[in-house]
Write a structure and sequence with these properties.
By secondary structure, the protein is α/β, with parallel strands linked by helices. Helices cover about 45% and strands about 15% of the residues. The protein has helices at about 10-20, 40-45, 65-75, 90-95, 95-115, 150-170, 190-200, 220-230, 250-260, 285-290, 300-310, 315-320, 325-335, and strands spanning about 1-5, 25-30, 55-60, 80, 120-125, 170-175, 180, 205, 215-220, 240, 245-250, 265-270. The chain has a seven-stranded parallel beta sheet, sandwiched between helices. The protein has a three-stranded mixed beta sheet with strand order 7-9-11. The protein has two domains: about 1-180 and about 215-240, Rossmann fold, CATH 3.40.50; about 190-215 and about 245-275 and about 300-335, UDP-galactose 4-epimerase, domain 1. Bound molecules: nicotinamide-adenine-dinucleotide and thymidine-5'-diphosphate. Keywords: Lyase, NAD. One of its GO terms (biological process) is nucleotide-sugar metabolic process. It comes from Kuenenia stuttgartiensis.
Length: about 350
């Protein structure tokens, strides 16, 4: 099987590549934006045996010519589209690239899938398309209410993919996962930012009252679910993928500090995110009834993740010392100044 993994140099994509390359011919198409990092795939590229089953194309999923070239050259059977602009706070600063990649990019991949025969197309969507869970955890049939530019653009890609199943009968499946954590996550995101700031002795900027809730899933559990869905999922369907670990941000921050034996005074309550979704929660009965369930305990997974960041300082310091410093200033200086 030849599988095209777009965004395969990012956080989740690189874990998925590592999993699939053991039994499939893996082709990665990645633009290598600030979030893409070939270091995430170094072990595979340097493994004599595995590298034979792996091919990398640097490029944009919005580039129709390039996508056509990859599809025809590599004779792709399955597409898993991870490529996206993914950080909510960046989408609030500037939404343009989110519209391009998360909507137009999906369109280009879907159109290419009409021209070349594919067996499956997995569109990686997100729980954020549902908006805040005020009451029960969301089921796949609940209406979408995306509330920030990232979530809205992902909802666009999600529904466009569905439309191509409904209209053209392309073999499409849509997944909506909850918040991922694990090794190789870019330090702009909450968990790695808090781990690395704590290691560096910097303040941990907790938005608002810190009582917002997120359902955390280990990235390996998420990748196992996608693999399972390729085999067992039904075309035209949506599957929620949650870890079943609903935590308030303040509690996650305190846990990180306790594992690192750091003072809880490092947490600083800062100006809240604009339009901040209060709670994400998923009902995963549909996927569980097919036989999947998450395996990794949250505290154990988070301890291992913290250890990984302790042991891989070079990986994240390279990121934090680059473009990120400027971003951090723009994103956080005013937050620290305008405390709650
Ligand atoms: P990430 O930001 O770590 O990686 C995104 C990757 O996509 C990068 O390698 C980047 O270079 C690449 N990319 C961006 N624009 C591109 C373009 N136009 N063409 C080709 N490549 C491009 O993201 P992630 O956290 O690994 O998320 C992967 C997917 O999973 C995304 O679709 C995201 O919406 C979804 N998702 C993420 C989470 C989470 O908690 N991280 C939860 C649910 C769903
Ligand atoms: P994030 O990792 O950006 O994921 P998402 O917003 O997509 O769920 O943030 C997770 C939670 O952590 C969210 O409620 C916002 C909060 N947060 C902070 O409190 N401080 C921060 O510096 C960041 C990046 C996030």
């Amino acid at each position: 099987m030849a599988i095209l993994i777009t965004g395969g140099a990012g956080f989740i994509g690189s874990h998925f590549v590592r999993r699939m390359v053991k039994h499939s011919h893996v082709v990665v198409l990645d633009k290598l934006t600030y979030a893409g990092n070939l270091e995430n795939l170094r072990d595979i590229r340097e493994d004599r045996e595995l590298s034979g089953y792996f091919k990398f194309y640097k490029g944009d999923i919005c580039n129709q010519e390039l996508v056509d070239h990859v599809m025809s050259t590599e004779k792709i059977d399955v597409i898993v589209n991870f490529a996206a602009e993914t950080h909510v706070d960046r989408s609030i600063l500037s939404a343009g690239t989110f519209i391009d990649t998360d909507i137009k990019g999906v369109f280009v991949l879907l159109e290419a899938s009409r021209r070349y025969t594919i067996k499956k197309f997995i569109q990686i969507s997100t729980d954020e398309v549902y908006g805040t869970a005020f009451h029960d955890a969301f089921k796949e049939t609940d209406s979408l209410n995306p509330s920030n530019p990232y979530a809205a653009s992902k909802a666009g890609g999600d529904r466009l993919a569905f439309a191509y199943w409904n209209t053209y009968k392309l073999p499409i499946i849509i997944t909506r996962a909850s918040n991922n954590y694990g090794p190789y996550q870019h330090p702009e995101k909450f968990i790695p930012l808090f781990i690395t700031n704590a290691i560096e002795g910097l303040k941990l900027p907790l938005y608002g009252d810190g009582r917002q809730e997120r359902d955390w899933i280990h990235v390996e559990d998420h990748c196992a679910a996608i693999d399972f869905i390729i085999e067992n999922g039904k075309e035209g369907e949506v599957y929620n993928i949650g870890g079943g670990n609903e935590k308030q941000n303040i509690d996650t921050a305190l846990f990180i500090l306790s594992v690192l034996a750091k003072d809880k005074g490092m947490i600083e309550s800062v100006k809240d995110r604009e339009g901040h979704d209060r709670r994400y929660a998923l009902d995963c009965t549909k996927l569980k009834s097919l036989g999947w369930k998450p395996q990794i305990d949250f505290e154990e997974g988070l301890r291992d993740t913290i250890k990984w960041y302790e042991e891989n300082e070079q990986w994240w310091k390279q990121i934090k010392n680059g473009e990120f410093m400027k971003y951090y200033e723009i994103q956080y200086n005013h937050r620290f100044a305008g405390k709650n």
